[in-house]
Every structure is written in structure tokens, then in C-alpha cells.
């Protein structure tokens, strides 16, 4: 018996989110009991350096004392009111200050809720049904967004999960990420029916794939000319890749931005935000309905606000960026020494590594063609060395401010050993 077999008795698949199972790498998931800074301890007493960071939120490291203090203090005053509290205004002010494209914010409890609501808002605001998304981009698990690519740009969408009605899928146009021509022809064909384009400004759910030059400009132009809205899904990249999110790097102003992960600081909080005009379409000001019993609950707001306050600092970003670059350069050098081809990327506190000799990686097809067997061996080798990477070849990695030079160098040394063993 293991903790996992116990869990499987009563939890569907033994996990409350499929990415936690080791389906992509084999073996049983590790159960954790506590975490502090860059490291966490498993139930069986092993310590790991963590590069998952709860899939992005833990940018300050685990259990940051200031965040824990404010969470505990806030909790003592009540967990949820279901009525307005000042912390909601404060975090919204903070988001608007750090993200110039946001005039108004609506808080929700998960990234899925944020993107689902943003899509409804775009449809309601424009009075159109069709949405454009990109292959390999993940926007949560709501029906309209769980669609994978058809063979041609305008092929009717095919649901990629059973349970997504075909009637909904046919309104989702899925295009190849970074394919500017495909975007142009989709808009030439049906631009007047497109409510919005939703995109991860740096794709982080197919490992890490940055946009090619001109991609976001092409999306912005196509949307503006067709009267469609541009949604940047920054649930992962928001306050993770830069102080002003990915949009500040590319100099693009989306109509709606979705946020999650970092803005909850480890508590369930997410948001969608945008121009005052677009956001005015949401109830109670406008007709597009969206609500949430626990939305904006004080404990999550306190954790998120404290996190944003601590990262709203240029020195923080310089240091975090340098840490991530140090790690990624070290991993790349170790791989090269062992004669293992990898392609690496990093931005702020986010990084990617793909086992391929076809880098730099700019398309979903390149990621899909990567050597997943080699990744599996690498993953288990690193786990054995006390380094916890995401258990899938298709995930990005995360460095926190709590990762010390020692943590990073220990990781690089472990990787050198594991890469060398991969060649034998
Ligand atoms: C994680 C993620 C989501 C979904 O957020 P949840 O909080 O898991 O529902 C949506 N979009 C992107 C880009 C994400 O990385």
C-alpha cells in the first residue's frame, strides 16, 4: 500500500488535478507535507528543490513569512463575507497600477473561471460567437476552450475531450501558434464573426514557446480591424515573467487580460480585467452575467495583495531574472557537455527545456516531436537527486526568489550527473 493507492480508493484517479499524476513519466506521484522557500519535504521524509512552485503561484518561494502572517491575521477576522471588503478594492487598485491595460478588474477563484468569463464577456460585448485559440495553448478546462486543432485553419473544431458539445466546438477556430498567415486567412474568411482571439502571450502549457517577432502585432491588428477583442491569457505569465506581465515585454495592449496563479500567492484567486468600456458589459453594470460565492474572499485577497506588493520592485525582477538565466544556462551547458541536444528558454521567473536538436522551439509541432522518453529518464533521475521538475515534458518550470545560488548550483550539478547517465 502507498499514499497513492489510499488516495485512489476515494479520489478519482488519486489526484485532484490530472497534471499531478505521473501519467507522463510513469511511477507514483510524491506526496508532500510541508514546504519552505525553494524546498519541500515529502511524506516519506525526502527533501526536494522545487521547480514547479504549485504550477506558478509561489514566486516568493513557499510559506513566505510576510504572506503567511497576513493570511493568518486576515483569517482571524473571518474567512468569507459574501459582501464587499476593502481588500478587494486594494488588490484591484494594485493590479490596475501594475498593468496599464486594466482599468477595471473582476476577481474570480480560478484561472479557468477567469478565461471562461473573459470569453463570455467577449462574446456578449461583441454579439459574436466565434473565438480563435492556438494549438498547444491551454486556457483552463471550460467547454469552448478545450478544443484541439482541426487539420485546416477553418476546419470545424473537434472537441478534444468527450463531454464538449459539438455545437460549442464548432465556434472555436484553432490555429497554429506563431502562424501569422493562418491568423490573416482566418480573419479574411470570417473576421466579422470573430468575438475574440485568446492567446498565451508566451506559451507555457506546451513547455515554453515565445512568440515570433510580429505575432502579437498581427493579432492586435487583426482584432482591431475586425472589431474583435484580443484576450491575453496571462494566468501563467502574469507577474511571473515581468513586473508588468508579458504584455509589457511585447508592448501590446490587449482588450482583456486574464490573471491567476501569482495573483493569489498560493490561495485560490484569479481575475479578468480590461478597458473600462469592455468591463462595463459585465453584470451588475451590463448584461453579461458572471458571479462567485467565494470571489474576492478576504484571505485570498490578502495573500495576493501581499505577494504583489513584494514583487512590485525592479530589483526583485533583476534578481529573479538573473537566477532563472543562471539555472537555464547551467542546464544547457551540462546537457551540451554530455552531448544531449536541448533547447532552452527563459523570461523572468519562468523557463523551458525541450529535448530536441531542432531548436529554438517556436511551434507546437516542434514540442510535440521532442524526445519524451529522454525527458522521462531525466525527470526520474532528477527526482532521485532531490530535484522536483514538473512530471511532464510539456510543462514550463518556475524559479522563485527563494532559490539560492546554492540551490541552483546543486540543481545544475545534479543535471550534469543525470545527463551523463542518459547517454550510457
Ligand atoms: C493554469 C492556467 C489556466 C487555468 O487556471 P486554473 O487556476 O488551473 O483553472 C488558464 N490559462 C493558463 C495560461 C494557465 O497556465
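Sequence proposed for the structure above (424 residues):
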Amino acid at each position: 500500500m502507498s499514499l497513492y493507492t489510499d488516495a485512489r480508493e476515494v479520489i478519482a484517479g488519486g489526484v485532484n488535478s490530472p497534471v499531478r499524476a505521473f501519467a507522463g513519466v510513469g511511477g507514483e506521484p510524491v506526496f508532500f507535507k510541508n514546504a519552505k522557500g525553494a524546498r519541500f519535504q515529502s511524506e516519506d521524509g525526502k527533501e526536494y528543490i522545487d521547480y514547479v512552485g504549485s504550477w506558478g503561484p509561489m514566486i516568493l518561494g513557499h510559506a513566505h513569512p510576510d504572506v503567511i502572517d497576513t493570511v493568518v491575521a486576515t483569517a482571524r477576522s473571518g474567512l468569507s463575507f459574501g459582501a464587499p471588503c476593502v481588500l478587494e478594492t486594494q488588490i484591484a487598485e494594485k493590479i490596475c497600477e501594475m498593468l496599464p491595460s486594466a482599468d477595471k478588474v473582476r476577481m474570480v477563484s480560478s484561472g479557468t473561471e477567469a478565461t471562461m468569463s473573459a470569453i463570455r464577456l467577449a462574446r456578449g460585448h461583441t454579439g459574436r460567437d466565434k473565438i480563435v485559440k492556438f494549438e498547444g495553448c491551454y486556457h483552463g478546462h471550460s467547454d469552448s476552450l478545450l478544443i484541439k486543432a482541426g487539420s485546416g485553419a477553418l476546419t470545424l473544431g473537434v472537441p478534444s475531450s468527450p463531454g464538449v458539445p459539438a455545437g460549442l466546438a464548432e465556434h472555436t477556430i484553432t490555429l497554429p501558434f506563431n502562424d501569422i498567415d493562418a491568423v490573416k486567412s482566418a480573419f479574411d474568411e470570417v473576421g466579422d464573426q470573430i468575438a475574440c482571439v485568446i492567446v498565451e502571450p508566451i506559451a507555457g502549457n506546451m513547455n515554453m514557446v515565445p512568440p515570433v517577432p510580429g505575432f502579437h502585432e498581427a493579432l492586435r491588428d487583426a482584432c482591431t480591424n475586425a472589431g474583435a477583442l484580443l484576450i491575453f491569457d496571462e494566468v501563467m505569465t502574469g507577474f511571473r515573467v515581468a513586473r508588468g506581465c508579458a504584455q509589457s515585454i511585447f508592448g501590446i495592449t490587449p482588450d482583456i487580460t486574464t490573471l491567476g496563479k501569482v495573483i493569489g500567492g498560493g490561495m485560490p484567486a484569479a481575475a479578468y480585467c480590461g478597458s473600462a468600456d469592455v468591463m462595463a458589459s459585465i453584470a451588475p453594470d451590463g448584461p453579461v452575467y458572471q458571479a462567485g460565492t467565494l470571489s474576492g474572499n478576504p484571505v485570498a485577497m490578502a495573500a495576493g495583495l501581499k505577494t504583489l506588493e513584494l514583487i512590485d520592485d525592479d530589483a526583485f525582477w533583476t534578481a529573479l531574472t538573473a537566477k532563472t538565466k543562471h539555472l537555464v544556462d547551467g542546464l544547457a551547458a551540462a546537457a551540451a557537455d554530455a552531448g544531449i541536444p536541448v533547447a532552452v528558454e527563459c523570461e523572468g521567473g519562468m523557463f523551458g527545456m525541450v529535448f530536441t536538436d531542432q531548436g529554438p522551439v517556436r511551434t507546437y509541432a516542434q514540442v510535440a516531436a521532442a524526445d519524451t522518453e529522454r525527458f522521462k529518464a531525466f525527470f526520474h533521475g532528477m527526482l532521485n537527486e532531490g530535484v522536483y521538475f514538473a512530471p511532464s515534458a510539456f510543462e514550463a518550470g518556475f524559479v522563485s526568489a527563494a532559490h539560492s545560488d546554492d540551490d541552483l548550483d546543486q540543481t545544475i550539478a545534479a543535471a550534469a550527473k543525470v545527463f551523463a547517465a542518459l547517454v550510457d
